[in-house]
Amino acid sequence: MRSVRQCSRSACTNAAVATLTYVYADSTAVLGPLAHLAEPHSYDLCAEHAERLTAPRGWEVVRLMPEFEDAGPSPDDLSALADAVREAGKARRPAEPPTVTETARRGHLRVLRADDPPSA
C-alpha cells in the first residue's frame, strides 16, 4: 500500500509527495518523486513545499518532475485494503478444548480454567 509519510517541514501535516536530496559535492539539490523508503539524509516534502523550494545561493535545483501532486489512494490500494479486511473477518479463533472453561472476562482479556481431565 502507498506510504502515508508527512512533509518534513516543521508544523506541516500534509502528505509527502516528493523527496529532496542534497548533493553537497556538486552544490545541487535534487527534488524527485517520493522515495519508496524514508532515507535518513533526505527530506520528504508536500506538494506546496516542493513547488516553493529554493536552493541556497550558488546551488542548483534539479527537478525530476515538473509538478508534484498527491495522487491519493489508487484502486489497487483500495482493493488491497478491502481484501485485508475481508481476510481478517474470516479468521476465526480456534475453539477452546472441552476441558477449558472461561471463568471471568475484563475487556478483551479472559480468565480460563483448565478442568481436571477425568481419571482413567
UniProtKB/TrEMBL annotation:
This is DUF3499 domain-containing protein. It comes from the Bacteria. It holds the Pfam family DUF3499. Residues 87-120 are annotated as: Disordered. The lineage of its organism: Bacteria, Bacillati, Actinomycetota, Actinomycetes, Micrococcales. InterPro entries: DUF3499 (IPR021888).
